[in-house]
Design goal:
Elements: E1 17-21, E2 24-29, E3 34-38, H1 40-51, H2 59-71, E4 93-97, H3 123-135, E5 140-144, H4 154-163, E6 167-172, H5 180-189, E7 192-196, H6 202-209, H7 213-226, E8 232-237, H8 245-252, E9 260-264, H9 280-292, E10 299-300, E11 312-313, E12 322-325, E13 330-332, E14 345-346, H10 352-356, H11 359-366, H12 384-387, H13 392-399, H14 407-424, H15 429-439, E15 443-444, E16 481-482
Parallel strand pairs: 4-5, 4-12, 5-6, 6-7, 7-8, 8-9, 9-10
Antiparallel strand pairs: 1-2, 1-15, 2-3, 11-16, 12-13, 13-14
Helix pairs in contact: 1-2, 3-4, 5-7, 9-15
Keywords: 4Fe-4S, Iron, Iron-sulfur, Metal-binding, Oxidoreductase, S-adenosyl-L-methionine
Organism: Micromonospora sediminimaris
Cofactor: [4Fe-4S] cluster
Amino acid sequence: MQLSGMWSELVVPDDLVYFQCRDRYLVENPGIAAWAVVGDGEIDVLRALASGVESPADPATTERALATLVLNWLVYLPGQQPRIRPAEPALRMVYYAITDGCNLRCPYCYASSTRKLPGELEPHESLDLVDQIADMGAELLILTGGEPMLRPDFFTVADHARSRGLRVNCITNGTRIPDEATARRMADTFGKITVSLDGGVAEVHERTRGKGTFARTANALALLNAAGVRPDINHVVSPDNIGALDQLMTFLDGIDFGNVRLMNHTGIGRGAEDGVHFAWEHHRDVQRFTWTNPVAQKILTEGPKAVKPCSIRGNCGLGGTEIYINSLGDVYPCKLVTGPLHKAGNVRAQRLADVFANPALSQLRTNTVFEGENLADCRRCYIRAACGGGCRAYHAAESGSITRNSRHHCRILRHSMITNIWRSNGFTGVDLLENESTMTVPRLIRDGTVHPVYDDWRTDTDPADAVHRRALPVLTNRTGASSCSA
């Protein structure tokens, strides 16, 4: 039987939306993260189907259009609406802040790191922790801090993790890699090394990192390259350095690196007290740079990525696929969610597997954008299944709770997601600049009106006020994927 013969039985999701670039349409199914770019023929057939009227096209054109829409999960066959079955995720990745000591004092530091804390895990306790992580079946251990290279048994812990079959990565400011021998040791030990860099010239980098740090970090990058390492770069982008992104990329043009991850400044840790607010116009400045600058090919901006259709995210992974363990052995859902309310336990008092079973973690990993109370704010969003709710710490920095969304942050997430989907389908930054008003505004297929959550940011409290709200928690360490199936 032809699809057109089922016309009255075919199902169009109620909140199916479209975005437009000239005569091309990005149609997106919010419930299962499905999308496809179609032309006028398909969109006309889809609108007619959603409105309950006859197809405006001839039978052959209608049949082809319906086949495209069904195959891309934008229209469902009778009785074939997909059901999302979120499975409880297994632990995959552990961030271990091996020390809270740090030789820098970055004003936005999410960990508020300064000096080594009394009572940090002893060397034998760190090795036992690695054994527990491996025994739980995790795949990846990421050593962070503070500055992890300040810890005397840094390499011993990493070597032991590798001997247990774990992949081991490291996040460092680079200032502790002064010579070829250290760079070679890093190359031999870590699968991925991420170096923090806040600017492409000393003047910009040292505003946050401190005097003399740029030359040391630049030297570390050169030494790592010489040792065969292509480091990734973490770059905190703020109103103070957005205008210097071109200098950053010019500097990196002389470095063999993997990717540059731009992380928006947020009010977490010391960032809650530094008086800086990353506003919508700053997000737009970053977007315009990455869309049009030829040196920006390897920049990874904040926000959800357009992986592929039906890559469903139930949540961000906190307390499930990843956890964070601080230098004292306290276990938290992630490295950015470390308030007293979210402490799940301590590895000195319990085995890690028992801590992982604590409701403080299990309740987070089993709540999704589809069910549960934690992500209820996401239920009506038009990117919910692709986004998974976004970073809960970023939300909490403005909303006051990891269970409540910041509409300002949601606005950035939605814009990032949709523009990334367009770009993944071959559309350019120039296309986006010239047609942004239609390419990023979601309209409901059923009646052409703008999706009701598109403008919800307008009713939010000015997020700049979050910088001054002392009622908000300062999140510091001081005290899964599904698929479409019928």
